[in-house]
């Protein structure tokens, strides 16, 4: 028979009204609240990071390949569509998708308002899946029709509100350039409206047909401004960057989204640091609470410890007994903590109970990301850390003398 486990079970089954039962409940509650808070906090932190990163990827992609030149305007220099990096992208390790784009600045003119914007031209190879989540009205334009070019555009809610436009509205966009440098108007139709919450994009970017930009720039159908590349694993962005570097020609340059939007990604890196600090603090508080609870239990059971020592119980046996008591509280705390944390996260993810101001947080509600491997690691880490810490108070047993403990009982 496992004597320490048997004795620990007797301690755990103390009467409900006893002091031991009350202290045990406090220990279980401290673990449950600590773990629940950690699960919620990390689900929200990961949600913020993923949501903001996905919004940046809508217009920045993971990697961007363009013509090497001194031109720093929105439009960029002409680049052949069919190059080794574009045609063989599927064979480059780490690359998930590649798409050709072109950009051109202009002025949108509504009856009463003007707005300076940048038209981002895309083709049939463009991946609309990420943008669908930010679509608030209408639909994405259809560029697959065999016409000169489509006049449908996708613009931000901010621009639409500024110019008082809605889906189906017509608006004139003036482009500058060409041989005469005279304004060249194009009548566009609003197919859809998006909202990312990132002012850098919402203030300026329209999505339209790349064939329109090719026509305006006197480019052929096989000429674009840049390639946007999406990687399979963002954590291996640098590895994929080097793989693409080996394929591009000397007259091309490649840039990473983490360099183009360094401020945002530095902010997200700071969140990772804060996350580590937060984890350490929560585990420290939970461990301290468990040590305190176990010390109180041992003080209450001092006569019992003295009696067991008088009957030949060793210090090691008694330490294991109280360790089992502590681990039992940890297990119950983990169960309740997971129910609390995962349950509240599910409510927020399903019903979006807590809203946010998009102007300040780039999103309209608190996002939740279900990172199950991390939740599992969080549970295992909590058990290991607290189990290691629980050995410390049990060494107090070594200093308890049976004669004094029995006298204390009297």
TrEMBL record:
Q: Does the keyword Cell membrane apply?
A: yes
A cellular component term from Gene Ontology for this protein is:
plasma membrane protein complex
Instruction: Give the classification, highest ranks.
Output: Bacteria, Pseudomonadati, Bacteroidota, Cytophagia, Cytophagales
Task: Identify its protein family.
Answer: Belongs to the ABC-4 integral membrane protein family. LolC/E subfamily.
Q: Where are the transmembrane segments?
A: 28-48, 276-299, 321-347, 368-392
- Domain of life assignment: Bacteria
What is the name listed in the Swiss-Prot or TrEMBL entry for this protein?
Answer: ABC transporter permease
Keyword Transmembrane among UniProt keywords: yes
InterPro entries assigned: ABC3_permease_C, Lipoprotein-release_system, MacB_PCD
Instruction: Identify its membrane topology class.
Output: Multi-pass membrane protein
The alphabetical list of record keywords is: Cell membrane, Membrane, Transmembrane, Transmembrane helix
Record-annotated ABC3 transporter permease C-terminal domain positions = 277-402
Its annotated compartments are: Cell membrane
Q: Which BP terms does GO give this entry?
A: lipoprotein localization to outer membrane
Residues of the MacB-like periplasmic core domain? 29-217
């Amino acid at each position: 028979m496992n004597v320490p486990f048997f004795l620990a079970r007797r301690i755990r089954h103390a009467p409900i009204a006893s002091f031991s039962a009350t202290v045990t409940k406090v220990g279980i509650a401290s673990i449950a609240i600590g773990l629940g808070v950690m699960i919620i906090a990390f689900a929200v932190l990961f949600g913020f990071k993923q949501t903001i990163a996905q919004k940046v990827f809508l217009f920045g992609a993971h990697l961007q390949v363009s013509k090497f030149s001194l031109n720093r305007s929105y439009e960029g220099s002409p680049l052949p569509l069919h190059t080794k990096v574009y045609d063989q992208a599927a064979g480059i390790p780490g690359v998930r998708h590649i798409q050709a784009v072109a950009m051109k600045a202009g002025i949108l003119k509504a009856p009463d308002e003007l707005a300076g914007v940048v038209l981002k031209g895309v083709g049939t190879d463009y991946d609309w899946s990420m943008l669908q989540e930010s679509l608030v009205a209408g639909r994405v334009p259809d560029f697959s029709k065999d016409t000169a070019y489509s006049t449908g555009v996708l613009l931000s809610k901010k621009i639409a509100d500024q110019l008082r436009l809605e889906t189906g509205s017509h608006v004139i966009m003036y482009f500058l350039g060409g041989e005469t440098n005279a304004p060249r108007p194009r009548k566009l139709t609003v197919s859809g409206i998006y909202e990312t919450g990132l002012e850098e994009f919402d203030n300026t970017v329209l999505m339209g047909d790349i064939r329109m930009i090719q026509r305006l720039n006197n480019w052929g159908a096989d000429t674009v401004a840049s390639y946007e590349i999406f990687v399979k694993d963002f954590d291996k962005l640098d590895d994929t960057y080097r793989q693409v570097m080996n394929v591009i020609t000397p007259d091309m340059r490649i840039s990473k989204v983490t360099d183009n939007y360094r401020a945002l990604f530095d902010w997200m890196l700071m969140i990772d640091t804060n996350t580590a600090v937060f984890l350490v603090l929560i585990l420290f508080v939970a461990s301290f609470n468990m040590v305190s609870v176990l010390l109180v239990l041992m003080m209450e059971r001092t006569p019992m410890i003295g009696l067991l020592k008088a009957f030949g119980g060793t210090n090691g046996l008694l330490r294991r007994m109280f360790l089992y008591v502590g681990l039992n509280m940890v297990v119950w705390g983990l169960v309740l903590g997971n129910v609390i944390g995962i349950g509240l996260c599910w409510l927020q993810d399903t019903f979006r109970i807590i809203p946010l101001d998009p102007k300040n947080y780039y999103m309209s509600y608190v996002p939740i990301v279900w990172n199950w491997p991390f939740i599992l690691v969080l549970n295992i880490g909590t058990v290991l850390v607290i189990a290691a810490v629980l050995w410390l108070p049990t060494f107090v047993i070594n200093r308890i003398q049976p004669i004094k403990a029995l006298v204390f009982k009297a």
